[in-house]
Design goal:
Dihydrolipoamide Transferase; alpha+beta; Chloramphenicol Acetyltransferase; 3 domains; 10 helices; about 500 residues; OB fold (Dihydrolipoamide Acetyltransferase, E2P)
């Protein structure tokens, strides 16, 4: 019998909460099957099994917080006590993570937890019961053990299973079209349109039937307990969409992500919720930012009528028919262009080194509120993307954020953030700078209001932008110029040709 201990996955994890067990005692598990969902101070993580066998005992109940190295599950085999050598699965389980507000190099954990634990066929067997996953260096190999087997350098070359040509063609056709259900993170107009998938959809093997569904849709189906093989897909090439899954479940608006709300007892006037996990880290990051960087916030109210007209023209263009176009797209592009004149907005004050770090790339973050707290996934190298490519990248970011499983690599290394408070009908606000950055732009609601045009009062589409920036190295002149340039492009998108 082998005990699986809560691992330190490489970025200073000291404790974690057992959120949900995915198996029960007596279940037979295979290599890389998800055993448990844990919540750390960094993220929500699904841990795959490093062993194959029968679950003998769940050693920690749900809801309990335990330190690293604590045994959490015992896996054995009724017929033999010999350790099971990991083999490469056909479809390895990848961990899914709900990231934090604070940028953090967290990718190493995701790579270890999702890696296939296949060893070279000539590798010597090892004692699974002797592996201490909370201390990889203590393993017998001397080179460390990953969460699901040997490290890459130790296990030799592996190969992916070949896909039949027909399956490749079917998947390629699906990837070229896509159908998603976008959320209000990036939308201020009420028109509907197709969107690109967050990631390439992979067929789900269910017996002899291969169901086309994207990862967020599969996640929703799993959380709602819906069998995808029994759902009739209405998407392109028969793909199963979120609406199909929700219809099969019997509702049309249930969000599967996030912790369930605590039921309030009759007559109860108040109750307490522990501050932990994602929300705790979010709070700490906001406090550090608010009281370490001197924030200055400037406001500008503009006529965005031409931007709204431009958005409608983009929607009518053939190349934009497969992506969702919104005013946020125009704002994001305006930010990229305005940074050419004021690159200091994209720099960062390194207080520890007493240096200002200037960055020639822009990782554009989009602040998103989730049931577990604020997260800021970002589009990598956004300044290099065309308007069409940027639209697709924002669609991807939104779809993944809606699934509640944004990967750490997608939220680390941000350089500038946009927070779209307009989706809540809010005019604007004084946003707090995301840690590791120097500025954040709040995008207010676009509303019809009276506006003076050529000395006449007319009805126009009006919005307010609010820019908060770090006044230690971005003075008022630079902040004002950047905000004015962004506002000018939104007032007249054609002025982008001047940049």
């Amino acid at each position: 019998m082998a005990e699986f201990k809560l691992p330190d996955v490489g970025e200073g994890l000291t404790e974690a909460e057992i959120v949900t067990w995915k198996v029960k005692e007596g279940d037979t598990v295979v290599i890389n099957q998800v055993l448990v969902e844990i919540e750390t101070a960094k993220s929500l993580v699904e841990l795959p099994s490093p062993f194959a066998g029968v679950v003998q005992r769940l050693m920690v109940p749900e809801g309990e917080t335990i330190p690293v190295g604590t045994p959490i599950i015992a896996i054995g085999d009724s017929s033999t006590t010999e350790p099971v050598e990991p083999v490469e699965p056909v479809e390895p389980v990848e961990p899914t993570v709900t990231p934090q507000t604070e940028s953090d190099p967290y990718l190493a954990m995701a790579e270890q937890a999702g890696a296939a634990g296949a060893a070279d066929s000539s590798a010597e067997p090892h004692d699974s019961a002797g592996i201490d996953l909370s201390n990889p260096a203590a393993s017998g190999s001397g080179e460390g053990e990953s969460l699901v087997g040997r490290m890459k350098a130790d296990r030799g070359a592996t190969r992916r299973a070949r896909k039949p040509a027909a399956a490749i063609q079917t998947q390629a056709a699906f990837e070229s079209t896509g159908d998603t259900a976008p959320i209000d993170l990036d939308e201020q107009d009420e028109s509907d349109g197709p969107a690109v998938p967050a990631t390439a959809a992979a067929p789900v093997a269910t017996g002899n039937v291969r169901v086309l569904a994207k990862p967020p849709v599969r996640r929703l189906a799993k959380d709602l307990g819906v069998d995808l093989s029994s759902v009739v897909g209405t998407g392109p090439n028969g793909a199963v969409t979120r609406d199909d899954v929700q219809a099969a479940h019997g509702d049309s608006g249930v969000e599967a992500s996030g912790p369930p709300r605590r039921p309030v007892a009759q007559g109860e006037r108040e109750w307490r919720e522990p501050i932990k996990g994602v929300r705790k880290m979010m709070g700490q990051a906001m406090v550090r930012s608010a009281f370490s960087a001197p924030h200055v916030t400037e406001w500008v109210t503009i006529d965005a009528t031409r931007t709204m007209e431009f958005v409608e023209r983009l929607k009518a263009r053939r190349e934009f028919r497969d992506v969702r176009v919104s005013p946020l797209l125009v704002l994001a592009r305006a930010v990229m262009l305005a940074m050419r004149r004021t690159p200091e907005i994209n720099s960062w004050w390194d207080d520890a080194a007493q240096e200002v770090v200037h960055k020639s790339y822009v990782n554009l973050g989009i602040a998103a509120a989730t049931p577990r707290g604020l997260v800021v996934p970002n589009v990598k190298d956004a300044e290099q993307l065309s308007l069409l490519e940027l639209a697709g990248a924002l669609n991807d970011l939104v779809e993944i954020a809606r699934s509640g499983r944004t990967q750490p690599a997608e939220m680390s290394g941000g350089t500038f953030t946009i927070t779209n408070v307009g989706v809540f009908g809010v005019d604007s606000g004084t946003p707090i700078i995301n840690p590791g950055e120097s500025a954040i732009l709040a995008f207010g609601a676009i509303k019809k209001q009276p506006w003076v045009v050529n000395d006449e009062i007319v009805v126009r589409q009006v919005t307010t932008l609010a820019l908060s920036f770090d006044h230690r190295h971005i003075d008022g002149e630079k902040g004002s110029r950047f905000l004015a340039d962004v506002a000018g492009i939104l007032e007249d998108p054609a002025s982008a040709l001047l940049y």
